[in-house]
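Run: sequence + pyridoxal-5'-phosphate -> complex structure.
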Amino acid sequence: MSYFKENIDRMDGYVPGSQPIGDVIKLNTNENPYPPAPGVLEAFSRVTAESLQRYPDPCCTELSAKYAEIVGVDPERVMVGNGSDNLIVMISRICGSPVVAPSPTFPYYQTQAEIEGVDYIEIPMGERFSVPVDGLINAGGAVTFLACPNSPTGTSATEEELDTLASGLAGKGLLVIDEAYVDFAERDSLGVLDRHDNVIILRTLSKGFSLAGLRLGFAVAAPEILKAMDKAREIYNVGSIQQKLAMAALDDLEHKDENARRVIASRESLAASLRKCGWDVIDSDANFVFASPPDGNGSAMHEQLKEKGIYVRYFNHPGLESFLRITVGTEDQNRALLDVAEMVSGT
Ligand SMILES: *Cc1c(COP(=O)(O)O)cnc(C)c1O
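>> structure
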């Protein structure tokens, strides 16, 4: 006998990348290698006892207004979450069955579908991880999740593909464009949002803003969609410290952009160096590369790197065994990784 719902007993649960402690080179969970804007810690030092004594603003009024201004939409079109994970939870709570996403992608969409006890349909990506537009539309999701840029592949849908998806799903389901990595990409999907009323864009401060520990995400969507999500929101989902620090982070977009430029430059040189060592590297729009070592043995390379204290992400899934997802680190960290790659390939 079990105390739990059948679907909970059946599911595995999300397994986060490991957070090893100590002196390791951590290139496994796509954190930003550079620190957040200095204003964020200054804001932290101004936190008062009184502000902690009170409940936070449940609606994050100031913060949503500020973010709305930055992305150029009305404040009713922004909702704040305790990380974008929290917004994925709300969406999964309010939408029905099935939940649809391409494969491979961020596994948390599936985790949430399983918790809700709804069907999850994954549509395999095409050649070089292209977006399976027709398959996604034909699956008829009550909600379709598309990470753009995608993890773990680093690939992006084109604006045309996103428009086709949004129109194809209109009247039947929502399209969630998860832009966790948008700060490292050439374009965003705000134009797509303008043209369709069934689209939600998710953003986060975890990657581009170097604030994975803060837990702060945004949903940008039509007010009717956000009103429905709001029904499924925990009452005080974002603490007052989070709200204050996020305000400070948004005050210094130049800091975020400068870090993103460094990461993008490092990404391109890391990809080029790996290719020189015979690796197959997928073109990336994100702060990581998805790449396969010369012998196609991702697992062995993963172990070899770990022995040198370098953590990257290996996915033991059919079709992904030859690949590793490597977060772009500092120049020194990338150099350490390349030393191993060069040693192995004898270059
Ligand atoms: C990292 C990541 C997230 C999680 O963002 P948080 O704001 O830290 O919850 C969401 N989606 C994708 C695709 C990610 O890679």
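>> summary
The radius of gyration is 20 Å. The first strand starts at residue 25 and ends at 26.
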